[in-house]
Write a structure and sequence with these properties.
Helix 8 runs antiparallel to helix 9. Strands 17-6-5-18-1-19-30-2-31 form a 9-stranded mixed β-sheet, with helices on both faces. The chain has a 4-stranded antiparallel β-sheet with strand order 8-9-10-11, with no helix packed on it. It is of the alpha+beta class and about 625 residues long.
Length: about 625
């Protein structure tokens, strides 16, 4: 009989996990812990909310509300009262900000019911909304330049002809220094690091120092070696608050040149409420590498990329287990971004390998490796939790599909006269004239915002012309033909007031005035800088998804499938009240995650929750 009194819940969030890929790799015997979870618990594909981007779906998971209701509609949010120009630089408001949400988070619902909660590295949970619970880990925002980062990762390429003229003092007699370089720690981290290429009794190596004295030596690295953690206080570039930060180095190669990788410089204090919990985790498990960054931006080799991602997820998982055992919260929620990074970096190439392009075998193997890293850490979690008293559920916000062509939204709008732009005489890049621009695509998501008078600062479109401009935009998109394929790339173009199927209507704050999605095989670029003035030949070149990059989520009708992967999310779990071996084959939406967790916690959902619990999976 199920333990009906058991109500403790751990939500293990893994961004980008595709249920189609999971089932395929389980069938191949490569994910034993996912297989265990599926056989001893429940499994379902989950339909993401529109558009299938990161912040809106992690917020949907945590509130049970659609983006049209909770109002976090994209990675960047265009707010009423702001100029449309804010979107050109990535939006005036970051979509990972919890204060944007108009719906109640489940951790607040739990607290109101007298339960305890810990929110750990979860997207869209900062600033913390908890009253008594524990919040840890910054914004949960992905990427090398997230809000909490002090300096993004860096690969130092140390060439002999670029060496410094300075010499080192106090070098031991058995060490031969062949070259010295002084490099900046990073554009946003004050200070420098000194690298010295040396020869000693063990061969060639790179010495790392803080100045030109051998007494400042921090480590001697041979190929494949990591340094110890470096710890120093820096002013945070966003807040200017002095914070103790940590980072380390790895020697990637020594040959005609030497290459040294530096991890992200990331805070080692101050990222928790109450104070001290984050530092407690660092004391237990060492400093945290948050989001090592996209592989192609920091080419560190597949092995190193796997190592730092494994280290990150092991740190998160060990910390999750520690928090569960030490503080025993009723609700514990965590998110890692690991699979999403691999998707963007390697999925396109992995698909090409399966289609016969042998040169992409390493990328194909990397996609398998990332799922196996997650499987390994999932096993660590399952083995460390008493599954007779605690439920462990794994969820993602979306999957990912490969693509072959790019669609430049604002380029299309400029050619239709909806965006007014001309080349900057100095840079040649587009300069938008907002006094004559009717609408603009918002970066990343499928939203186009009209420059409406009375709503947008300096708006130009009269309210009585609103629907006319919507029609102009619709015609421009549907009349467009991709120069690479000759086809219209758009699967749908919908006016905001007609978008009820996506949980969005004319009252939905922050949603675009036109919503759209492309067909599989394409992906969207909506940066204002994508406007060009090229001829058709250059436009064809620009339309190609050029290596290395590609694979996207959220640019499509939610949940599409394409070439062996999908944009669906995953939801599965194991525990005392969860039905073993149950695979849900009906449509289940991410809005149902919070109601399901509430059922397991024996509490009522908030009034703002719109989803329904996966009752069939609960005994």
């Amino acid at each position: 009989m199920p333990n009906t009194n058991a109500r403790r819940v751990i939500l293990y969030g893994i961004d980008g996990t595709d249920p189609v890929m999971v089932k395929r790799l389980v069938a191949e015997g490569k994910l034993p812990n996912f297989q265990r979870l599926m056989e001893q618990g429940f499994f379902t594909e989950a339909l993401p909310s529109y558009s299938g981007k990161t912040p809106q779906n992690w917020t949907t998971i945590a509130t049970g509300a659609e983006p049209g209701s909770h109002s976090i509609t994209d990675l960047y949010v265009q707010k009423a009262g702001e100029p449309l120009a804010a979107a050109e630089k990535g939006g005036a408001f970051n979509g990972f900000d919890s204060s944007l949400s108009k719906a109640e988070f489940i951790w607040n619902t739990a607290e109101k019911a007298g339960l305890s909660a810990i929110v750990f590295n979860y997207a869209c949970a900062a600033p913390s909304t908890l009253e008594k619970g524990i919040w840890i880990g910054g914004s949960g925002e992905p990427g090398p330049e997230c809000q909490d980062t002090v300096a993004k990762p860096q690969v130092y390429v140390l060439k002999p002809d670029q060496a410094s003229t300075e010499s080192l003092d106090g070098v031991p007699a058995d060490v031969d220094v062949t070259a010295v370089w002084r490099e900046s720690l990073g554009a946003t981290a004050p200070g420098s690091v000194v690298f010295a290429r040396i020869k000693d009794t063990q061969g060639e190596a790179v010495a790392i120092l803080t100045d030109s004295s051998w007494g400042s030596l921090k480590g001697i690295l041979r190929v494949g070696d990591y340094s110890a953690w470096m710890v120093e206080s820096f002013p945070h570039p966003r807040t200017e608050q002095a914070l103790k930060c940590a980072w380390k180095y790895k020697c990637l190669s020594i040959g005609d040149k030497a290459e040294v990788y530096r991890t992200k410089i990331y805070p080692a204090e101050g990222l928790s409420t109450p104070d001290g919990i984050y530092e407690e985790l660092i004391e237990q498990f060492g400093p945290f590498i948050n989001e090592p960054g996209h592989y192609w931006s920091y080419p560190i080799g597949h092995d190193t990329y796997d190592e730092v991602n494994l280290e990150q997820l092991e740190w998160l998982t060990n910390s999750l287990i520690y928090l569960h055992q030490t503080y025993q919260p009723d609700l514990l929620m965590m998110k890692s971004h690991i699979i999403d990074h691999y998707n963007h970096d390697f999925l396109n190439q992995a698909v090409k390998y399966e289609e016969g392009a042998a040169e992409f075998e390493a990328c194909y193997q990397s996609m398998i490796n990332c799922y196996q890293i997650v499987d390994q850490c999932l096993g660590l979690l399952l083995d460390s939790v008493d599954l007779t008293t605690t439920h462990v559920l794994l969820v993602s916000d979306h999957g990912c599909v490969s693509d072959e062509a790019q669609v430049y939204i604002n380029d299309i709008l400029a050619r239709a006269g909806i965006v007014s732009a001309a080349p900057d005489p100095e840079t040649g890049k587009a300069r938008i004239d907002y006094s004559r621009t009717k609408a603009l695509g918002i970066p990343f998501g499928g939203h186009i915002t009209i420059n409406l008078k009375g709503r947008q600062q300096d708006g130009i479109v009269e309210p009585e012309d609103y629907e006319t401009v919507q029609e102009e935009i619709t015609d421009a998109l549907l009349d467009y033909r991709c120069p690479l394929t000759g086809k219209c790339p758009f699967a749908f173009v919908i006016r905001k007031q007609d978008a009820g199927i996506f949980g969005i209507n004319q009252h939905s704050e922050h949603a675009g005035d036109i919503l759209f999605g492309v067909r599989t095989g394409y992906h969207i670029s909506a940066w204002a800088g994508s406007i060009t003035f090229d001829d058709v030949a250059s436009e064809v070149y620009k339309a190609k998804v050029r290596e290395p990059w590609g694979a996207m989520h959220g640019d499509y009708w939610p949940g599409v499938r394409y070439k062996g992967s999908s944009d669906m999310a995953i939801f599965c779990g194991i525990g005392p009240r969860l039905r073993p071996g149950y695979e849900h084959k009906k449509v289940f939406r991410l809005t149902g995650v919070t109601p399901t967790l509430c059922r397991l916690l024996n509490i009522d959902v908030a009034d703002t929750c719109e989803g329904g619990a996966l009752s069939e999976a609960i005994e």
